[in-house]
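Page header: ASSEMBLY MODEL / two components / 300 residues total.
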Amino acid sequence: MAKVFIYPATSLILSDMVTRFGHKPLGSAIAIRERVQTPGLESPPLQITPEEPKKGLAWAAVEVPAGVRGRMSLYGPMVEECDAAIIINNADLAFGCMGCARTNELVKFLLRQKEMPRLELEYPKNEAEGVQFVAAIKKFLTEIGGKK
Amino acid sequence: MTEYKPAYPGTVTRYVVVESYTVTPADVAIRAYEVAKGVMIKENCFGLIVMGKEEDVDRVIAEVRKMDPTHIFVKDRGFPPGDARRCRATLGGARPGFHGIEFEMGILPYISNGLEKTENLDLSAVPAPAPAAPERRLDVYTLKKMIDAQEP
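Prediction written out in full:
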């Protein structure tokens, strides 16, 4: 069972398919759950503390806005931990503020830099593309050692 | 600063999203309650939120998935069900994150169809998805031509 980073990190489709074909998806929920379930000082809503932008320095320089570094403290460890990645490009779902946009660019850059199996595709727009989309993901996940 | 004590440490929460024309979220909820055994289940408009120990949650999800395997989808969630920081009962408006699910709900029929069609299919026979068309940006030379073409 491989750890597969999914982008968009909140994607229902990718999270489901990675689990369905026998792997572990790494997405936002995993990182948020870790923070929500850790005792400490109350910092609602996401339990992101002033420590997070400091941790984010491992992936982004000090002049990068704290918002990006804070987000990188969620995604950075998962990017390092993952064995493979599936990226959906041009996903409307990943739209957000500049902090999200720059973090997304940095996450995709780090995933592309890492030497590991990687699949990049687009959301399907019709049934034929849906079959190709599912087949590509199924084939990719089977090749890295998942269920057939 | 207030001390923070997590409400349900050591648990996992997962969404079960139902996009089926034969099974409703209520049917799935009834089946989930039948096999719950200590797992917290909350029914909502698009499916369920299931929370408990990981092995119990996986067991419940495996059972409800059998109802319509290609039309029931599962996703992790960071917060427990009804958490005041996320629940729309306390916040008002759609829950943050709902819009993402709403967007993908429109694509789920294609995915369900794809899962059905590829079940017994030789995957090497399916062509790879076409890469996205390159982004067409206005280059500086064209812009200059357009500026020059302007009537004074």
